[in-house]
Amino acid sequence: MIERELTVSNRLGLHARATAKLVQLLSAFRSTTTLTAKGREVNAKSIMGVMLLAAGQGTQVRLRVEGEDEAATAEAVCALFERRFDEDS
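Structure tokens predicted for HPr family phosphocarrier protein (89 residues):
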């Protein structure tokens, strides 16, 4: 199991477009992936689940990945957060 602390740094937070990008990215991996923020834990492969986090800019999010490709999954998600979901220039 891999856990990482991430910060939502894109201006609009985990809104519909960013969440869709995250879920699409995760669809290529087999590992179980969860996000926790504000005391709520959700399946990171669920658009509705991630949207329920209502994670705006600056929100701390805990990523937990477990499974056969967990290292690659965690690396891909961390990179997406670091790139600010490819939104901010």
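Strands lie at 2-7, 32-37, 40-43, 60-66.
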